[in-house]
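For the sake of clarity, the format in which proteins appear in this thesis is described at this point. The record quoted next illustrates the convention:

___
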Amino acid sequence: MAHTPSATVDVRSIAPRERHPTIFSTFRKLGVGQSMELVNDHDPRPLYFQFQAEMPGGFGWDYLEAGPHTWRVSIRKLSASSQDAHSHGHCCGGGSCSGA
């Protein structure tokens, strides 16, 4: 299903400690039903789990491209309650999310 994202965030050129805060800030600005496209240099799976922990049921996650050099993910806002979600300073370090 083709869609046009409301925002695109290419985190490949963003400092690792700023990636998740930038992503969550962009997501908070979306209206319900809008989506953002995330572009990354590694699988953002730990970010998916962070979204799941902070706003269960409030987002949709669809891989548009899955490596090996570029990952693109569509993240859609499904409920207004997800507007209150915030980042707790989690970030990817050293170019990959370790979840540790």
Q: What stands out?
A: The chain has two helices and four strands. Confidence is low (pLDDT under 50) at residues 82-100. Residues 7-82 form a domain with the Translation Initiation Factor IF3 fold (CATH 3.30.110.40).
